[in-house]
Amino acid sequence: MSISSIEIEAIVKKIVSEMSTSSTCPSVASAAAEKSGYEIPVGISNRHIHLTREHLEILFGKGYELTHLKDLSQPGQYACKETLTIVGPSMRSIEGVRVLGPLRKASQVEISVTDSYVLKVKPPVRESGSLSGSAPITIIGPRGIVQLNEGCIIANRHIHMSPADASRFGVRDGDYINVDAMSGTKRARWFDVQVRVHEQFRLEMHVDTDDANAVGFKNGSTVTVAKD
Q1: What pLDDT, in 10s, does the model give residues 112-133?
Q2: Please, which pLDDT band fits residue 6 given cuts at 50, 70 and 90?
């Protein structure tokens, strides 16, 4: 029994209709998965200070302990109630700079380019903890003063991620990638963003207030890994 052209046309229309409404259409599913796999939330870092035990006690007194204010996005990191004043070589200062915990092996002050203009200091753009040859800065506390011959930096743009995230993105600790900042009010591409991988890290890109303001970002905005 032969099938008429009218019946063939009806069958084709039914098949096309079912394909267009299916939730498992391969092209749509793969495109959505690809997009979600490349999104990285952003955390904005204001100027802040990391302290050693020695410098904490100089600034606040013998036996002093930091006061926890709130947890930060990265596990084990937290903002403290304590704030300090930082002073540049020209004696210009910024007050109310937040201390972050826990204590570290070396004291470090992280500021933005805008802050450096206020303080009249010239800090290098560095990975956190890379302090050799960085800028001098003075820290003033309620009980004492610490003068750092080096320790003031502008933190480089970087992304925290777990080993599982690194595998998903196809990167390794220390790699540099480019990302697109498209979710703010001014689209941009950031180059040479450092990848930092650790089992305790939570996926998040860190930028300072200058970078965030330049593209209209807020905490929770997202970037995507550039594909070209």
Answers
A1: 999 999 999 999 999 999 999 9
A2: low
Nearest CA to 202 among 18, 105, 100, 73? 73
Contact 216, 184 (CB under 8 A): yes
Place of tokens 């750092």: 148
DSSP E strand boundaries for 75-134: 78-87, 93-101, 108-110, 125-126
What is the Cα–Cα distance from 193 to 1, expressed in whole angstroms?
A: 67
For strands 145-155 and 125-126, give the pairing: parallel
CA gap 46, 97 in Å, rounded: 9
Tell me, what amino acid is at 9?
E
Q: Please tell me the distance from the alpha carbon of residue 221 to that of residue 53, in angstroms, as a whole number.
A: 35
Rounded Cα distance, 181 and 142, in Å: 41
171: tokens are 């990167």
Instruction: Count Cβ atoms within 10 A of the Cβ of residue 101 and give its class: 0-12 exposed, 13-18 middle, 19 or more buried.
Output: buried
Using omega within 30 degrees of 0 as the cis cutoff, is the peptide bond preceding 89 cis? no
Taking only the tens place, the pLDDT of each residue in 9-23 is 554 454 334 434 433
- Among candidate residues 91, 33, 84, 42, the one with its CA nearest the CA of residue 190: 42
The pLDDT assigned to 22 comes to 38
Cβ 88 vs Cβ 121: under 8 Å: yes
Q: What is the DSSP letter of 91?
A: S
